[in-house]
Amino acid sequence: MKNATNKVSRAASWMLASTTLFCGTLLLVKSQANDAVSAINGKLEANYGSVNDTYSRGIAGSLSIPVAESWGIQFDSMYQHAAEDDFYGLGGHFFTRKPDVGLLGLFVGGIKSGSSMDNLAVAMEGEVYLEKVSVGAFIGFDHIDRNGVNSAFLPRTNNHDNFVLANLYAAVYPVDDLMVRFDYTNRLNRNFYDITVEYQTPVQGLSVFGVGGLGDGDFYQLMGGLRYYFGKGKNLKRRHREDDPINPLSGIFQSTGQASGQNPNKPAAGGGKGKGKGEG
Q1: Is the distance from CB of 164 to CB of 186 less than 8 angstroms?
Q2: In a domain, 266, yes or no
Q3: Is the Cα torsion angle 154, 125, 212, 198 positive or negative in sign?
Q4: Among the ranges given (24-33, 51-60, 117-126, 241-250), the one the predictor scored with the smallest mean pLDDT
Q5: Three-state secondary structure call for residue 51
Q6: Measured between alpha carbons, how far is 49 from 14 in angstroms, rounded to an integer?
Q7: Tens digit of each residue's pLDDT (9 = 90 or more) over 166-191
Q8: Residue 277 belongs to some domain of the structure
Q9: Paired strand residues for 210
Q10: Burial of residue 130 (number of CB atoms within 10 Å: 0-12, 13-18, 19+)
Q11: Any long-range contacts for 145-149 (C-beta under 8 Å, 24+ apart)?
């Protein structure tokens, strides 16, 4: 009971610190509409589900701020509990965007676990907007530092490893309040395929979402949750194109978890047999 209380306390402290940072930034930046970010806005989400028979639950948040005529910044945070470990993440975006054309930006973020696993990602992000489809890419550098700990999430990587991180996706909007997104991710030399569905409900700012995915080594995931958008009322497609970019921390977390989903008897695409659990 005490252990569970400590975990809740750490998660609450992490989110409180992140919220304090966001609120402090709000006091320093004058709110004004521009092409990159329509106005100061944010979102909070809670998720729950299963990744390879391991239950996962967490929360995440983002705050977007216009800083110049066509530039914006966004701060991301997350907390996730899975595989008997706790994960904490912070990240930031600097980007330019035209809502009728697309987005181009830089993301820097990191995740730290209770078992001393560190993850740093630096990536370029871009989107192109068509009438009912958004096409995007997230490509960069990914560093894993396990600090000598045999993390349950990364049993098949060395203590210090660098990887290419690549995510390609297409988001389709059959109607303005419904998005169906198809993702391909290559991370830790593994391939993963996800489908995300998000629907904005009649309650202003509230949406429900679900994610299903498959990958190398018999990996699978099924997650769902609620997301609340702060800011002006608008349809889901406009929120995605005028307000906050995607928070990749939960995606980075999930793909980190995906590394543990490798079947030790199955090779990764283009490679030999994986190693058993506990081998470096």
Answers
A1: yes
A2: no
A3: positive
A4: 24-33
A5: strand
A6: 22
A7: 999 999 999 999 999 999 998 878 89
A8: no
A9: 197, 224
A10: exposed
A11: 145/117, 145/118, 145/119, 145/120, 146/116, 146/117, 146/118, 147/116, 147/117, 147/118, 148/116, 149/115, 149/116, 149/117
Closest CA to 236 of 183, 173, 181, 194: 173
Q: In CATH, what number is assigned to the domain containing residue 99? A: 2.40.160.160
Instruction: Specify whether the CB–CB gap between 193 and 186 falls below 8 A.
Output: no
- Number of domains into which the chain is organized: 1
Q: How far apart are CA 250 and CA 86, in angstroms?
A: 13
pLDDT band for 265, please (50, 70, 90 cuts). Answer: very low
Q: Which domain holds residue 25?
A: 2-259
Compute how many other C-beta atoms are within 10 angstroms of the C-beta atom of residue 253: 25
Is 240 part of a structural domain of the chain?
yes
79 in a structural domain: yes
As a whole number of angstroms, the distance between CA 190 and CA 16 comes to: 35
Contact 198, 178 (CB under 8 A): yes
pTM of the entire predicted model: 0.77
